[in-house]
Amino acid sequence: MTIPQTMLAARLVGHGGPEVLELVEVPVPAPAEGEALVRVGATALNNTDLWTREGAYGRPGAPDALSGWRGPIDFPRIQGADVAGTVVEVGAGVDPGWRGRRVLIDPAIYDRDAEDANPVGLLGSERDGGYARYVTTPAARLHDIGGSPLSDVEAACFPTAYGTALGMLERGDVREGEDVVVTGASGGVGLALVQLAAARGARVLAISSAGKLDAVRSAGAVEVVDRADDPWARLAERAPGGVDAVLDVAAGDHVGEGLPLVREGGRWVVAGALAGHRVEFDVRRLYLHNIALIGSSMHTPAHFRALAEIVRGGRVRPVIALTQELAEVHRAQAELATRAHVGKVVLAGG
Length: 350
Hints:
Blueprint: E1 6-12, E2 21-27, E3 35-44, H1 47-54, E4 77-78, E5 82-90, E6 102-105, E7 108-110, E8 119-122, E9 134-138, E10 142-144, H2 152-155, H3 158-171, E11 179-182, H4 188-199, E12 203-208, H5 213-218, E13 223-226, H6 231-238, E14 243-248, H7 253-258, E15 262-270, H8 283-287, E16 292-295, H9 301-313, E17 320-325, H10 329-338, E18 344-348
Parallel strand pairs: 11-12, 11-14, 12-13, 14-15, 15-16, 17-18
Antiparallel strand pairs: 1-2, 1-4, 3-5, 3-9, 3-18, 5-6, 6-10, 7-8
């Protein structure tokens, strides 16, 4: 195929409101050595996109400082971590057989070349991402999904939300037959946790907001409680023997209120702070009951390979709330910010 010289892209020019995300024509990037050029089929949105735009991550010792996910952002920056598409060109040193293959991109930038490497950067944050017609990526981050029954719009929902969810499940060693609580269960990561935990045979109890309880139940939760209705007391009634793990994307007061519900030797896995980044709890509940408190940020290369296998098999289908064209990116981010929806917001066709 003929690759155009320019493309439409949505890029940040600084931290702030919607006005700092501009739609512009920019040159189509050329793949460097070890890289591939992917024509974007779809890009899913994440809360990370909003927080990166707003500079809401803070820095060590300066929690209110404007910052990206891992520190200062080099502007301008094309947003968008989650990309499904087709390889159209490769750089030097990359197998030309990748051309024409349908792929899912692992958006993580890792701290080392190892199966258990930690993510220290992200597509759309530390390098240009998928809010564009084309994106470059290291060829090592490509995963073939040519046989998947999922569309590009569906496949693009997986990298960040489901990758984060799978990382939480693996780091928390969630197993078949266990009882687990999912907080923030109607959001992107929360709903992915419900689906993936249920798929591996766990009994999922979820906390969500009124109006979304049925949708969370449909995703695989056996019990769903309203977060505004004393949720931990309600969960204690439904699981009087306690739970094996809490998969938490909310933090805030949830930690102190929910920790007594965790069984001996249980796990509390945190991957977000939707309800607040400052927490208070009785530390005796932690050490006297041998409870592990685990921080989980995204996924490892090994986790993502397992995720790509899930996509290839189509064993889990994401819930999609809204699909927009790239030119409607501001509307898409505004919808994401309302948190009134259930499921993913996706930009189709780059």
